[in-house]
């Protein structure tokens, strides 16, 4: 748990909680100690009291998103022990994607804009420190312009360092995932080493509505 609040908040907790939960107090003003935890939660700029929990057995993390009052903390700990807390996944703020040829996806919008979308979605998963990601992004932007007339196809990207989702598990960056309309549970992984022309050919073969696919001009 991360906080700059006094220990008095935890005094109301049942004694049994201390036998089952290890409590850690970190001064949020101490950047060296607090930043790694805040980064893990995706709230590096937070100046408020933060209460979080980590379950190493399940590789899960949890965040108290209501005010850290004694009663809320007690309920948070109780639900943690009973396994009724929903895991916390970090997400950037929801961006304005109006008129963007390459949609920006965040953790909070992956369900609506990708997994539940009725359209085919090509998603680039990247990180800011990835050496090859910039080249891949330029490729995807070029492809997005090439397929601009295809209504049932969306091009998008997500920063995996700042956004999490239980159904997005990627081991290397950049990663290109094609989510077919009607079968979002089985995304197709595309090669990031392919040329733009080769990727266009693969995308066209995956599209259901081939009558709207543009000619090869890449």
TrEMBL record:
It comes from the Eukaryota. One of its GO terms (biological process) is protein folding. Residues 80-208 form the Thioredoxin domain. GO terms for molecular function: protein disulfide isomerase activity. Coiled coil: none annotated. Keywords: Isomerase. GO terms for cellular component: endoplasmic reticulum. InterPro entries: Thioredoxin-like_sf, Thioredoxin_domain. Transmembrane segments: none annotated. Belongs to the protein disulfide isomerase family. This is PROTEIN DISULFIDE ISOMERASE. It comes from Salix koriyanagi.
